[in-house]
């Protein structure tokens, strides 16, 4: 609506003015495409457009994580595999791939000096050159500790399992081309913004270098445009079977390490930063390289994303701008739910007969049938262990979330072939509360219920 568009432009303008950014761009994605874009510039008559490249820094890591999960989905690796199975000479051979993805491998935060973001990659030509005398700072798996060299290892892992093809070429072929992101590149291509440092005490600029960081590229090398990042946000919201399915993208948003800070307001998944803001759960990533700042946040429940880009090293709060753009739309124009629809047929009568009330002891639950033979268990009391279940080829179901994530749900039949009970990770669910004849572990008092 016009009022929302004005509010979005105002927020972008405040971000650019207060942050003293040479230029700033913003966008909102909803329903799989860009719904609003805006731009501000300090140079009159030179407002950047959606096809101008900016450096996106650590948003690069989200692309690397997608490539790694593609390898996992193809069966070429397991997230619990130690990186030493695939790469020789790493300082953390026992750290798992999941720990590298979630920054919990214990590796140092930065590459061996000098400042890798402002110096050419030729200074670190070999993998061993990325790590100093004390590359490991914490025990693996104990806590979140952001590590740029950890993502350099993940880029090398992609190259190793793709037969020596560079990670940039794998990215282009397997991810960027299918999504139509032809303006996302390792090196800048015209038109692109120049990177600047803004003097802290005067309105003056200093140009920043744009180095090819070589082996450290997977940590933050990419350049992209607002239009391409809108496509990336749409992918992170919904997935795309040509690149990575919805369930694997959702796995990226699942917390993988303990939260940062004093509360549960920030954490990290598999290549995605996670934050709680204004009661919302956001996922995405921030990025910074000399001369550039970037941020992308998504809210899956509202199906909306906010993006902000600026071409200066520090100053603008692009993370807050991107989140505010998202929240302005979600608050002013809440998502309209999708229409209720029938299950795709034909209807499985045996599965339908499983639906309805079930009891774990005296606790009532209801089992609902979902699409693709999926099931959902919901406590009728409003509080308790709810979970969705994915159907498996062997006739069982696997929990997708909550307490029962990864646990097996199976239907147990009596000798006459009728359904006896449900077994959920050894918990027994019966059709009645503590039925005397039911297979309740420990048995049921012979006198039954009493008053």
Describe this structure in words.
This protein has 451 residues and is α+β, with helices and mostly antiparallel strands. The protein has nine helices and 19 strands. The protein has helices spanning 2-19, 60-73, 97-101, 148-161, 167-179, 226-238, 246-252, 318-332, 349-354; strands spanning 23-30, 33-41, 53-55, 196-198, 205-207, 223-225, 266-268, 273-277, 280-289, 292-299, 304-310, 356-360, 363-369, 375-379, 387-391, 397-399, 408-413, 419-424, 427-429. The strands form four sheets. It has an eight-stranded antiparallel sheet. A seven-stranded antiparallel sheet has the order 2-1-11-10-9-8-7, sandwiched between helices. It has a two-stranded antiparallel sheet with strand order 3-6. The relative contact order is 0.13.
Key features?
single chain; eight-stranded antiparallel beta sheet; seven-stranded antiparallel beta sheet
Q: What is the fold's blueprint, element by element?
A:
Blueprint: H1 2-19, E1 23-30, E2 33-41, E3 53-55, H2 60-73, H3 97-101, H4 148-161, H5 167-179, E4 196-198, E5 205-207, E6 223-225, H6 226-238, H7 246-252, E7 266-268, E8 273-277, E9 280-289, E10 292-299, E11 304-310, H8 318-332, H9 349-354, E12 356-360, E13 363-369, E14 375-379, E15 387-391, E16 397-399, E17 408-413, E18 419-424, E19 427-429
Antiparallel strand pairs: 1-2, 1-11, 3-6, 4-5, 7-8, 8-9, 9-10, 10-11, 12-13, 13-14, 14-15, 15-16, 16-17, 17-18, 18-19
Strand-residue fraction?
Answer: 15-25%
Number of helices: 9
Question: Distance between the terminal alpha carbons, to the nearest Å?
Answer: 61 Å
Major β-sheet annotation? 8 strands, antiparallel
């Amino acid at each position: 609506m016009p009022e929302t568009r004005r509010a979005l432009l105002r927020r972008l303008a405040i971000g650019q003015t207060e942050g003293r950014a040479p230029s700033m761009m913003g966008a909102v994605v909803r329903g799989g495409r860009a719904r609003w874009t805006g731009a501000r510039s300090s140079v009159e008559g030179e407002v950047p457009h959606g096809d101008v490249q900016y450096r996106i820094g650590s948003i690069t890591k989200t692309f690397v994580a997608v490539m790694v999960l593609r390898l996992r989905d193809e069966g070429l690796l397991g997230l619990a595999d130690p990186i030493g199975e695939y790469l020789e000479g790493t300082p953390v051979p026992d750290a798992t791939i999941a720990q590298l993805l979630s920054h919990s491998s214990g590796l140092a935060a930065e590459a061996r000096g000098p400042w890798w973001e402002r110096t050419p990659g030729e200074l670190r030509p070999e993998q061993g050159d990325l790590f100093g005398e004390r590359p490991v700072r914490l025990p693996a798996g104990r806590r979140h500790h952001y590590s740029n060299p950890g993502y350099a290892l993940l880029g090398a892992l992609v190259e190793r399992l793709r037969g020596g093809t560079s990670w940039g070429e794998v990215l282009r072929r397997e991810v960027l081309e299918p999504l139509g992101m032809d303006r996302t590149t390792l090196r800048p291509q015209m038109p692109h913004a120049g990177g600047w440092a803004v003097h802290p005490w005067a309105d003056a600029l200093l140009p920043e270098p744009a180095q090819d960081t070589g082996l450290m590229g997977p940590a933050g090398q990419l350049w992209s445009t607002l239009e391409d990042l809108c496509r990336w946000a749409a992918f992170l919201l919904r997935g795309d079977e040509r690149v990575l399915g919805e369930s694997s993208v959702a796995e990226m948003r699942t917390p993988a390490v303990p939260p940062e800070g004093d509360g549960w307001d920030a954490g990290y998944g598999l290549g995605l930063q996670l934050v709680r803001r204004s009661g919302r759960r956001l996922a995405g990533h921030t990025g910074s390289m000399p001369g550039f700042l970037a941020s992308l946040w998504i809210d899956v429940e509202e199906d909306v994303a906010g993006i902000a880009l600026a071409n200066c090293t520090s100053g603008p709060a692009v993370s807050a701008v991107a989140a505010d753009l998202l929240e302005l739309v979600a608050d002013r124009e809440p998502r309209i739910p999708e229409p209720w629809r029938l299950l795709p047929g034909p209807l499985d009568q045996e599965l339908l007969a499983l639906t309805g009330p079930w009891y774990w002891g005296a606790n009532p639950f209801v089992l609902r049938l979902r699409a693709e033979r999926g099931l959902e268990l919901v406590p009728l009391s409003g509080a308790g262990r709810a979970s969705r279940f994915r159907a498996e080829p062997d006739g069982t179901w696997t929990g997708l979330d909550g307490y029962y994530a990864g646990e097996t749900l199976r239907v147990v039949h009596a000798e006459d072939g009728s359904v006896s009970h449900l077994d959920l990770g050894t918990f027994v669910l019966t059709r009645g509360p503590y039925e005397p004849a039911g297979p309740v572990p420990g048995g049921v008092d012979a006198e039954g219920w009493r008053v």
